[in-house]
């Protein structure tokens, strides 16, 4: 009994079709996993950027409050520590989202070199904001940002 060469070739190509299907499925799975990982990383990056922007907004708000307070109010009673939320007043009284913990430090200004006569009329104000990001794929990460400005007795 002699096998037809055409039927032999057909069986050989059918075996290759199974291997090709398996390799194609493996590649599709890898591409799907990579697409999911890149989307998750993108969402986490957007969240971190939003938190950085919110921290900057909080610091600018506090610096504006210091500017509006004036010299006598700043020296007599420095601004206290504070807690701000990512979305203030979202759920009634407290707020929701990430909590930003801030400190306001008022100190005498320092100038390198010789001390000018107006040094007693300058204060250095440092506002520091700290928060913890719980969205990170690696767990939670702590962040900190600060802004510094000088305040003069006679204003600008």
Which range best describes the helical content: under 10%, 10-25%, 25-40%, 40-55%, 55-70% or over 70%?
Answer: 40-55%
Average of the residue pLDDT scores: 82
**Distance between termini?**
107 Å
Quaternary form: single chain
Q: Give me the side-by-side strand order of the main sheet.
A: 1-2-3-4
Name the beta content range: 25-35%
Number of discrete helical segments: 2
Q: What's the structural blueprint in terms of helices and strands?
A:
Layout: H1 5-69, H2 71-76, E1 82-87, E2 96-108, E3 122-133, E4 141-152
Antiparallel strand pairs: 1-2, 2-3, 3-4
Describe it for me?
This protein is an alpha+beta fold and 156 residues long. It has one domain (5-152). It has 2 helices and 4 strands. The chain has helices spanning 5-69, 71-76; strands at 82-87, 96-108, 122-133, 141-152. It has a 4-stranded antiparallel β-sheet with strand order 1-2-3-4. It is elongated.
Short recap of the structure:
With 156 residues, the chain is of the alpha+beta class.
Summarize this structure as a short list of keywords or feature phrases.
156 residues, 2 helices, 4-stranded antiparallel beta sheet, single chain, alpha+beta
């Amino acid at each position: 009994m002699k096998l037809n060469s055409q039927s032999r070739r057909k069986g050989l190509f059918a075996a290759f079709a199974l291997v090709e299907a398996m390799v194609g499925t493996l590649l599709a799975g890898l591409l799907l996993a990579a697409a999911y990982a890149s989307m998750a990383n993108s969402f986490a990056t957007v969240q971190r950027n939003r938190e950085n922007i919110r921290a900057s907004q909080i610091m600018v708000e506090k610096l504006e409050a210091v500017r509006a307070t004036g010299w006598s109010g700043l020296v007599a009673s420095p601004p206290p520590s504070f807690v701000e939320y990512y979305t203030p007043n979202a759920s009634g009284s407290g707020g929701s989202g990430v909590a930003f913990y801030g400190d306001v430090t008022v100190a005498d200004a320092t100038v390198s070199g010789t001390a000018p006569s107006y040094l007693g009329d300058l204060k250095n104000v440092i506002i520091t904001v700290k928060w913890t990001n719980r969205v990170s794929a690696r767990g939670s990460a702590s962040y900190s940002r600060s802004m510094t400005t000088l305040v003069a007795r006679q204003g600008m």
